[in-house]
Amino acid sequence: MASVGSIARVALAVFVAALMAAVASAAPHEPSPRLDPRQLSALPSYVQRVEAAIVSLQVEVPPDRPSALTLGTDRWGSGVVFDTVGYVLTVSYIVLDAQRIEATLRDGRKVPGHLVALDLEVGVGIVKLEGPGPWPVAALGDSTKVVAGDIVGTVGISDEGRLSASAGRVDAVRPFTAAWEYMLDRAFVVSPYNPAFGGAALVDAAGAVIGVTSLRLGEAPYANLAIPIEHFLPGRDELLAKGRVASRRPRPWLGLYTQTLEGRGIVVSGMSPVGPARAAGFRPGDVITRLNGEKVDTQEEFYRKLWQGGVEQEVQVVVQRDRGFEAITVRPVDRYRLFRMSGN
Which of 78, 230, 307, 329 has the smallest CB count inside 10 Å? Predict the structure, then answer.
């Protein structure tokens, strides 16, 4: 049994320890360092990871080039550096037929660039920055696992040269067809809409690039269409080496702009000034009903049947015009022979 003296000594020790703790807590001490709000970013971390690799592209196209009439001669957009050598991935319509390209980096540097490759089937282009760098590089991710509902970020440069970054979700993963003889079997629809959509990087929750933002879709509130990076990666090395994916069979191209109208079918809305469709006799308002004798009701059906043939292999297109039908024979071409493949 403990003695009264030992109990008193223990109580005294507990009292002294408590007193010292109280004194220590009351003693003056150095304040914790406070972060400067100006050094904080409101952007999600996965957006911050790619920001340094985003560039603004200013593009000049000669007025006599095929795309100048429809896309203009002065273009701007975004791109993302994906290689330490200085290769920039962007959307093809920004750099198509480019004669002069200037890139502005996030650190303020302005450097010339030149077009080195186009993949018009996918819808992307590659620009090479001139100079030794160093070039900040973004990681390329895996887009094949992306599903509707995934969290993503869109990062581009506005027409005023400001970073335009937004967090959002993938609304849908679906096929996409467009007026200019273009189709993807898998594309991303992303919201909310980012106004700097042309060539902006689409990144996943880890900050890796999983797509190139291409278009604004629908009516307000808009959505963006993004080209999954999976369409670019298989042909990447060949694009850099040859300027196009030469091992892929070229798609026959007519130079037709069409739209699918409910209750009417595939309606011709216009023609490229250099495509064979114009010389063959197509007119705006023509309704395409058959291709090589087979009925077609949608753009997707029309494209798939057209692309089954070969370049320079004649096709017959039946159109409804006024109250009758016209059969038009046209010889498709390889459009890579018409558009500028290099800025040199």
Answer: 329
